[in-house]
Amino acid sequence: MRKTLRLPNCDEQALLEQVQVRLVERAELERFKHLLDEHHYLGSLKEVGQRLHYVATDAQDQWLALLVFSAPAKHLKHRDRWIGWSAAQRHRRLSLVTNNSRFLILPEHSVPNLASKVLRLTLERLAADWQACYGHPVLVVETFVDPAQFCGTVYSASGWTELGQTDGWGRHRRDYYLKHDQPKRLFCRQLCKNARR
After folding, report:
1. Mind listing the pLDDT tens digit for each residue in 3-37?
2. What is the pLDDT of residues 33-81, one digit of tens each?
3. Residues 66, 95: contact at Cβ < 8 Å?
4. What is the DSSP letter of 193?
5. Most exposed of 26, 35, 38, 102 (fewest Cβ within 10 Å)?
6. Do strands 97-105 and 140-145 pair parallel, antiparallel, or not at all (unpaired)?
7. Over the range 77-110, which residues count as b (16 or more CB within 10 Å of their CB) and which as e?
8. SS3 145
9. What radius of gyration do the chain's Cα atoms show?
């Protein structure tokens, strides 16, 4: 799980300076899903609800990383406490939160600092993209990190706040959750100043 830290070499640094993030086009979705199924330990997501698909590319439009943002978890005690929501406020304002449900650096492009650069570039445009696509903003983003798989370093390094562990429930269908007894670490981040307020 832990990797030896190293700085990018000259070629890798040049790649980092060229990285761009864009929304995935409809014609690219099958390729996107196939790569998630092939390389992400959770696979791709079912097409339900509001979601945005992003791809990070180099100067030649070669795919480097994939990200999906989708509907947030309905009930997260640590997130709700961090925001300061009552149950009624959560019900009215949950659409202002999104979940970074998939993040994959494609294996052949694992470069030091690539993940944090891609995440920063994506978060810089996420709220505007969501507004353009769905007609409302998102102000907070959440994500879950499986401690058996990852350390969450990229989220910590990118200014996310670790709020605690989940209770070990997972969404099975839109409004149905199953107990899986594999708690995840919960990270959240405001997309603009005073977003929680």
Report:
1. 566 776 777 776 788 999 999 999 999 999 999 99
2. 999 999 999 999 887 789 999 999 999 999 999 999 999 998 899 999 9
3. no
4. T
5. 26
6. parallel
7. ebbbebbebeeeebeeeeebbbbbbbbbbbeebe
8. strand
9. 17
The whole model's pTM is what?
0.88
C-alpha distances in Å from residue 169, one per residue of 62, 74, 165, 166, 179: 36, 11, 11, 7, 4
What is the total residue count of the chain?
A: 197
**Nearest in space to 32 (alpha carbons), one of 65, 72, 71, 70:** 65
pLDDT band at 194 (very low <50, low <70, confident <90, very high): confident
d(CA 128, CA 37): 28
Cα 29-96-66 angle, rounded to 5 deg = 25
Q: Rounded CA gap, 88 and 95, in Å? A: 13
Closest to 146 measured CA to CA, from 102, 82, 191: 102
Q: CA-based angle 110:50:66, to the nearest 5?
A: 10
